Amino acid sequence: MKWDHLHEERILILDFGSQYTQLIARRVRESHVYCEIHPFNMAIQEIRAFQPKGIILSGGPAGVYQKEAPLPDPLIFSLQVPILGICYGLQVMAHQLGGQVEKAARREYGPATIDIIHPGDLFKNIECTDVRVWMSHGDRVLTLPADFIILANSDNSPIAAMGDFGRHFYGVQFHPEVVHTPCGKNLLENFLYRVCHCRSTWTMKSFVETSIQVIRERVGADQVICALSGGVDSSVVAALLHNAIGPQLHCIFVNNGMLRTGEAESVQTIFRDHFEMNLIYLDASELFLQRLKGVIDPEQKRKIIGNLFIELFEKEAGKLPNVRYLAQGTLYPDVIESVSFKGPSATIKTHHNVGGLPEKMQLQLIEPLRELFKDEARLVGRELGLPERIIMRHPFPGPGLAIRLLRDVTSEDLQILREADSIVLEEMQASGWYDKVWQAFAVLLPVRSVGVMGDERTYDQVIALRVVESVDAMTADWARLPYELLQKISNRIINEVNGVNRVVYDISSKPPSTIEWE
Ligand code: XMP
Predict the structure, then answer these.
(1) pTM to 2 decimals?
(2) Choice among 175, 251, 316, 518 that is catalytic
(3) Is 87 a catalytic residue?
(4) Number of the ligand 1 atom closest to the C-alpha atom of 398
(5) DSSP one-letter string for 382-447
(6) Which residue stretches of the chain have pLDDT < 70?
(7) Domains of the chain (ranges, CATH numbers)
(8) E strands, 176-248, where?
(9) Is 393 a pocket residue for ligand 1 (Cβ < 6 Å)?
(10) Whole-number pLDDT of residue 106
């Protein structure tokens, strides 16, 4: 299915490997214009078929004169489509159109100020002097290509922005997509609305409407299954499909016994009782516990849980007649990871439980969120009436609590971890901190330490509290929670959870640590 052709007005972002490319896409989407990221060497026929209203050339770590420097097909400059080059994208534009690029005497990295000489459409409604921008470049444009004029300069970059008003080509040396360029949103919107004449039609409401139509057409009278975990992505997929095809959707929720307090019940209440979906609930807690008996290695735990999940899911699905499709909550960042110039990033821990299912079961995939960022998926969920506690839910690993108790899984340890975890979540929510952080959870450490309770000596287990801030889980930092909150969580865990006499706070960042302990 070609989802991309559903949206009339599209911006094409060619990726030259900048760490900010996704950010450009998010900014464009936030301005309600649909865009896609493709590799810098996208074939010109494909670009033509994509029919972009405008093209953005991203930044990137290379220099245009390097051997094997990433360069786009120069025919993009003959498409009669507006182009905005950002940082390396600006240099590409200058280089390919006959200007000169040179190594700057010194790298310019961080905040800078520019002065605008010719605002044109790009800098409309932006102050002209001492404009704060974020620079991050080594090379710079030395001479302009024919028909270009300088739009802005800075002390270190005489050509901080250039433009050819006739052909609607623009380039900026700084990064408008980062928050450290306060006028960046304005600049990008000027490009989208004034230069490319896009209208702001990309909204989650329109996304829902179009998706429902497309899903209906594609599925026809067939049946679809969906592995529901209660997490944001699978919940949004289920709600969207339910809206589109109602009873033809069958959700399967497998309780692997590694869930948190009340999770299995709440998924059933929301999806079966409230949304009236076909929900198959399978409690396989005992079976998972049996298979995990004595297993300590985290990757082994993941494998066992993943495989058993597939086995059970397949069996349940096999009982349903005429199933042709499997719906999955793949998001845009997963898709870009696989097409990006940088190539897929290394997997440190194996994730995703449903991998391998579609081929094995000969099912076709339906991935209606493939083009959405996480925050857009959340908006879709809200649009579809999912409760806030699902929409704003922190990520929770598929193998669940099994990878948060750092030894073999027993029901006793699971119980301890569950109780501690509930306290963490309750207090995070009560203090308003839950929505400010990426994840907050308890980890049960495989050590005992001495304590004293009343007059008695105790020799009990330790809970590590892990609370992190992050934007994409690729990097993370520990949250600076108020001492009072830490104190409350610690006191409650030690007083209320039998078998725990000590709580420690994890103050490691990722990298070099990871978010989960296993
Ligand atoms: P790490 O620990 O690698 O985690 O920093 C990054 C993000 O991924 C989640 N995570 C998992 N999710 N299955 C999942 O579905 C897994 O096996 C798994 N391991 C880690 C983690 O919670 C964090 O959000």
Answers:
(1) 0.83
(2) 175
(3) yes
(4) 15
(5) HHTT--HHHHTPPP--TTGGGGSBSSS--HHHHHHHHHHHHHHHHHHHHTT-GGGSSEEEEEEEEE
(6) 1-7, 337-358
(7) 10-195 (3.40.50.880), 204-391 (3.40.50.620), 404-505 (3.30.300.10)
(8) 223-227
(9) no
(10) 75
